[in-house]
Amino acid sequence: MIQIMQKYCCAVMVTAAAMTGFAGNSAALTAADRTVVKRIEAYLNAIRTMSARFIQAEPNGWIAEGALYLQRPGKMRIEYDPPHRFLMVTTGRMLIVYNGKTDATMHLPVSTSPVAFLLGDRVDFTREAEIKRVVRRPNAYIITVTQRGGGNASLRLVFAKKPFRIKEWTVIDARRKKTRVVLVDPRFGLPIDPVKFLFEKPGRNTARRQGGRPPKVKAMDLK
Question: How many CB atoms lie within 10 A of CB 160?
């Protein structure tokens, strides 16, 4: 059960300390690369709230959808759509994970997520991450970072250029298996109901109070 629940956390959790668990020296970057990195940092640091739908694709072809709510610093809620029945809430340093199928709740450090990069007060890739690669494409920037001490896991972030926004991320584990998370209709800077960041086991009463979900989207081709 722990492995299954951590799979969800690793894929879509986003952290209580900017890039917690990511540190080291960056690979040699060109002046153009550094310009891209600085632009991404400025963009991420300007985000204080975000809500979005997301689609998560696993290496085995398994696909799930859900809703994500973010308030910096330190707060996030991730709700998976049925039939998966997973809920994750973070308030500061603790991540609470609920598995509705087994009615089990786990409390984990937020730092267990390799995608923990948005919840800190500030993001500074050059100081807190080992940047392995910066790719400039006509419509997007792609940045790949690795974990502290040259760990085998890595994180690839994709940013659309027009308009400039975070588009998706991919967690690449030690076995080179990839879990991709695509944001759909992200909304920035809007107030989020504080109730979203309180943990309560889902039920009929909770469902009635949850209102204000981002609009649900049809499944899309992630290829």
Answer: 14
Measured over the CA atoms of residue 89, residue 18, residue 49 and residue 3, the dihedral's sign is negative
User: What is the end-to-end Cα distance of the chain in Å, rounded?
Assistant: 29
Domain layout of the chain by residue ranges: 2-208
- How many residues are given for the chain? 223
| Low-confidence residues of the chain: pLDDT under 70 | 1-27, 111-118, 126, 128, 147-151, 203-223
Task: Tell me how far apart the alpha carbons of residues 20 and 120 are, in angstroms, rounded to a whole number.
Answer: 9
Yes or no: is domain 2-208 CATH 2.50.20.10? yes
Q: What is the pLDDT of residue 2?
A: 39
**Model-level pTM greater than 0.90?**
no
* Rounded-to-integer distance, Cα 101 and Cα 85, Å: 6
Cα 69 from Cα 58, distance rounded (Å)? 21
